[in-house]
Amino acid sequence: MPDEIYNTGLVLSGGGTRGFAHLGVLQALNEEGIYPDVISGASAGALAGVLYCDGITPQEALKIMKGSSRLDYMKPAMPRDGLLQLSGIKKILEDHLHARNFEDLKIPLYASATDLNNGKPVYFSKGQLLDPILASASIPILFKPVIIDNIHYVDGGVLDNLPLKPIENLCRFKIGSFVNPVGKEESLTSLIKITERTFMIMMAKEVTEKSKKFDLFISPQELKNYGILSPDEADTVYKIGYEATREKLKEPEVRQLIAARLSGTWKDRER
Question: pLDDT for 16-27, tens place per residue?
Answer without folding.
Answer: 889 999 999 999
